[in-house]
Amino acid sequence: MPKLNSLQKKLPLTVKKERDAVVLVNQLLLPGALKFIRLTTYHEAIKAIKKMNVRGAQAIGATGAGGIFLASLEYRGSDVRKMISFLRQAGRQIMKARPTARNLAWGVEQMLKIAQGANVKIIRQKIDRAYQDLLQSEVKNNLLIGKYGASLIKDGDHIETHCNAGSLSAIWFGTATAPMYTAHLEGKKIKVLVDETRPWFQGSRLTAWEMSRANIPYHINIDSANAFLMSHKMVDLIIVGADRITKNGDTANKIGTCALAMVAKNYNIPFYVAAVSATIDFSLNSGKEIRIEDRDDEEVIADVSYWHKSVAPKDAKAYNPVFDVTPAKFISGIITEYGILKPSEIKGLEKKIRREEKGNLVL
Ligand code: MRU
Predict the structure, then answer these.
(1) Are strands 280-281 and 244-246 parallel, antiparallel or unpaired?
(2) DSSP 97
(3) How many whole angstroms separate alpha carbon 227 and alpha carbon 259?
(4) Can 157 be counted among the known catalytic residues?
(5) pLDDT, mean over the chain
């Protein structure tokens, strides 16, 4: 693709493997500073996911897989069985770090699946190679999502997105942003409307940072401006990411996504989800079964930068569910590395991709 190299210079790899470490963009410091953290133990991987130094479904999946890679280096013994049980217990702990994104368990499972071999050294080498392959193939998938998704974008389109399903939420290039980057690199003049995404501001802190680095025109809007923007014909298309997609096409994504989709339906604005197949949970029939992460009140009521003081009374309590589920009926299509699917076609993907999730592992 033309100019892909120029984008590579502007957007760093969010998750990178080194010989004996995993290096992450420290997302807590953005947009103020672009700094990296170097993980050398699986406990550090868990901490980075819990503290949200790394966030976004694909990025935490890659970090979870990286945790197993690090655990394989940490194991000091020479007994294969003990090594595998050490890796499995590490996997169980990593998977608990955050509940909603399917990719986290997927990343761990991919590593544990190949953790077999005649001796510890061979297992370590297999994991090393598999981890590098996983990172590379996830980027290839995102480039495919970009190719398919860009076909939906017309020259001059205003595209709205929620949260950050960008390069920072992935290894590189992103999911929801992939069609935007591709369209931009193809020379289409687009504008991106970035929902700020309370309470963590993944939109205004992270997606806006990416747009700015990539020289894509953008505006930030508060989350509650969506109906206004759509009713004033300021939005042509919506593309969001996903944290978990169930067999029937229901999609969990950052809180506020469902409301966005409902308003879009009202104004007949196409609403697309972009996600890699690792986000699909074929063990769940519908979104009702998805576990939604509930986070600290403090995230909602603490200081926000403009006011420099608390935005609520001291005794305030808050509800802070951080994802919601958009029913399939509000979704125009799901952009995957296999093409653009109707939500009802998600189920059929299971056989095709032969994920072999069941029966591989007993954790
Ligand atoms: O809480 P986060 O920031 O880890 O939330 C995940 C997300 O960034 C989104 O829901 C996103 O839109 C999908 S991530 C590919």
Answers:
(1) parallel
(2) S
(3) 9
(4) no
(5) 94
